[in-house]
Amino acid sequence: MNNSGARRRILFLIVGLSLFLAASLMPASESELPSPYKKWLDEEVVYVISPVEREVFQKLSTDRERDLFIEAFWKHRDPTPATVENEFKAEHYRRINYADHFFGREGPKPGWKTDRGRVYIILGEPNDIQRFEGKTQIRASEVWFYQGKTDAGLPPGFNLVFFQQAGVGEYKLYSPTKDGPQALLTSYTGDPLDYLSAYRQLQEIEPSLADASISLVPGEETTMIGRPSMASDLLIQRVETAPQRLIEEKYAQKFLEFKDIVEVEYSANYIGSESLVKVIQDPSGISFVHFSIEPERLSVDQHKNKYFATLKMNGTVSSLEGKPIFQFERAISLDLDEEKMGPARRQPLDIHDMFPLIPGKFRVSVLVKNEVSKEFTSLEQTVAIPGEDAAYRLSSLILGYRVTRPEKNQPNLKPFRLGPYQIYCQANRVFLAKDFLCLGFQIHGLHPETMGKAEVRYAFLKNDEAFRSFSRKAPEYAEFPNILEQFPLTDFPPAHYAVRVSLLIDGREVVCDSDQFDVTHLESVKRPWFYSKILPPSSDPVYDYLIGTQLYNAGQNEEAIARLEKACQGRPDSVDYAQNLAQAYMTKGEYKKIEPLLVPFFGQDKPPGYELYLLLGRAYQKTGKWDKAIETFDRTISHYGTNMILLNALGECYFQKGDVNAALTAWQKSLEISPDQPQIRKSMETLRGKNEK
Hints:
The protein is of the alpha+beta class. The protein is 34% helix and 26% strand. Strands 13, 14, 15, 16, 18 and 21 form a six-stranded antiparallel sheet that branches. Strands 7, 8, 9, 11 and 12 form a five-stranded antiparallel sheet that branches.
């Protein structure tokens, strides 16, 4: 467990990350945007920006944030991020320039605003263009043919038709159902709803244009000859939204959430990740949150044949109301040689870690930053930690693809270890037909008198339909309350599955949980290599310290003191443990306990931290030991300098001693630092009045 000073100092002075910054910001009106940003939003990227990206951009409040977002916008579309040039961005602006030059000639609109300009900017150069001009019987028309756009969710090959609706002006995008073949004829006099008659007339003049007027997908069979294809209008809609299917919008939401938290150089570089969060109870009764983060890529630095990366992890836990409960930091240093780097290039990295947590419902946020690439990713999830008063408790289900039994007498804790079982799991929960599904969980709350009446039922659903189920008596599990079942998947056809686990007492379900997984038809999947945090045994005083701190932050001071006292007994030389216990004593008003707790740390060569001085001085002040309080505050100032808090405390001590001039001097200095202190001014006026009398 990392007990670095930086982490310890903020356990009580914690300032949690705001997990839902986006919810607290109201969108700005587009008319309020400065001119360059309004032009970027409404002209330059109007056809390729997604609704989520647009909404996020409108919520940004400074030009610096907007510039960083624009950088992130292009970065997440760059096909080759490792190169200097952003090919997507360069091609996008080339298309805008082309559209303005060639498609704005027939009308007053700039080319990018025309239908042809819009489609050209979205899809680029057509593979082929057929032009139909100079014939009196049909409108001037163009048929654009595209191939190779399946990555945007479009057909392998399709047409788009443009025509001059009134014979002059800009070309309009043709809709088979809204316009129909008759719109392409200059002198059609038949029934406006008689598509077949118009189609036959057009076919006599231009057969290829007639076919495109009925269906934009070559070779498509329509339900009736001459009747326009509804699928063609769906195709047009998909063309309009094609750019949105080429990106993951999540980066924009993360930019908004973390723009005030991560450093500037990271803010534009969000990368996706898979994550997993499970809760497992230790035999000591402490619940641990086990989590896994799998970034979509790992960037490393190279020096000769060595590869390096440093990841910084910041985790926060807050109540559902936003109250900070716990914060932790980790530094992950990866040092790989050529042999280890080979598999690392082909396999994803899974970061596994765990931390203890008190009962309750909480929001967990973990931020991981790669200092090499200046990229960041995150995990956010709500977790529920049951209390001991819960009657029957079923832990999280852990779905792994492999399980081992580490050697006995290994007291250290490791993520995703369930009693004697080490479960290897991956957040995506994808399995091969040759795999075993290793299903692990815990059951708590069963007493000897109910153990014989208990059974565990497993039910599998395949694509939401019942697939398989069976039950087993609870006493059959030798490692109870830790349960592991391994299911061969050879007869599980490739599909999406759900597994539901229930605890039954006398045949009645009392608690259940479920999870989902997939069985793939592939022959292999990329299994990760792991970085797993190893923690001290659960008997280590550090857990009493962490749990006590969390209880204090949650407002449960009585329980916090009991835990922190136990932690200090186990590690009496820890200044951090003593400081947190002293803070809890201060909150409860047990001032007399603080002096014997803290004084031993003041005889050392290195002076204690500022917070320890302040706590001891406050304790002396609360117990009326004015001289000791003054001495402590003076020593604090000599080590750490003057501030308003110390000067006000000194003034109070001098006042209580009856030294009016010293009190006035201290308070006057405090007002020089911060003039806006009406209570101090009032005290000084009262004191001067009494002094004059």
